[in-house]
Amino acid sequence: MRDRIDLEAVSFAWGAAPPVLRGVTLTVRRGEIVIIGGRSGSGKSSLLELCAGLIKPTSGKVLWDGNDIAALPKEELFRARQSIGYVFQVHALISNFTVFDNLALPLRNRGGLNGEAIMKRVRAEMENLMLSSGIDCRYPEALSAYECKAAALCRALIGDPTLLILDEPLSGLDPAAAERFLSVIEQRWKERTMAVIMMNYDLSVLPHLPARRMVLDGGKLAPYQDEFPGGA
Could you report the per-residue pLDDT of 181-199, keeping only the tens digit for each? Predict the structure, then answer.
């Protein structure tokens, strides 16, 4: 995905269970922000995984720049995913990788940068989220909740994505840490003109930005009715 993602009448069910998503249609273009709320178990994480091509819809289509991702060869899908940064609800850092290796992984997979350039990039991202350089040799199990979240956001941003996907990125953070996270996300959105799709329990975040705010309920996606100063 580089410039546009489309969900066309997408439904999804886990095995024989009832569908968690029912006919969801959504278009997000580069530069747009979409913030989605919903109850626990409403299918929010499934929706994000569909957007990222991590799972396939039961019916309907997910399109990246007009291409049905279900029909893409694995190699092409892997290359396309490199333009997506993903912050999972549970940080999903690799447990037997150090913080440095977790952050460096997207750059190493992409290739084209030497060790010194990768180190500089990792250090810059860590500094942006106020992560001390001393934790880069530690493993995820030795990190605080904030450090795990911050490392996950660093890893998502380090490849300069055109689409940033965030699954409850502020959960468990104190107000100051949450504000720092949102500031970094806003700054990168402005710098890189990326698309942002964020699941968040609080739909009032980033009220000064032109975000579309939506609610996932009963498997359906609908606009949120309250108005925000910067909202669409």
Answer: 999 999 999 999 999 999 9
Sign of CA dihedral 154, 156, 161, 167: negative
- Calculate what percentage of the chain has a pLDDT beyond 70: 97
Contacts of 119 (CB under 8 A, 6+ apart): 104
Neighbours of 67 (CB within 10 A): 16
R_g of the chain, CA atoms, integer Å: 17
The region of weakest confidence among 23-32, 37-46, 61-70 is 37-46
The pTM is what?
0.92
Q: Considering the chain, what percentage of its residues have pLDDT values greater than 90?
A: 77
Question: What DSSP element (H or E) covers 228?
Answer: none
State which CATH number among 3.40.50.300, 3.60.20.10, 2.60.120.10, 3.40.50.11540 fits the domain covering 1-83+163-172+195-232. 3.40.50.300
For Cα atoms 195, 70, 79, give the angle at the middle one, nearest 5 degrees: 55
220's CB contacts (< 8 A; 6+ apart) are: 22, 23, 24
What is the residue-averaged pLDDT of the chain?
Answer: 91
DSSP letter at 7?
Answer: E
Question: What dihedral angle (degrees, nearest 10) is formed by the CA atoms of 88, 91, 93, 95?
Answer: -130
The tokens for 194 are 């990326």
Q: Are 13 and 24 in contact (CB under 8 A)?
A: no
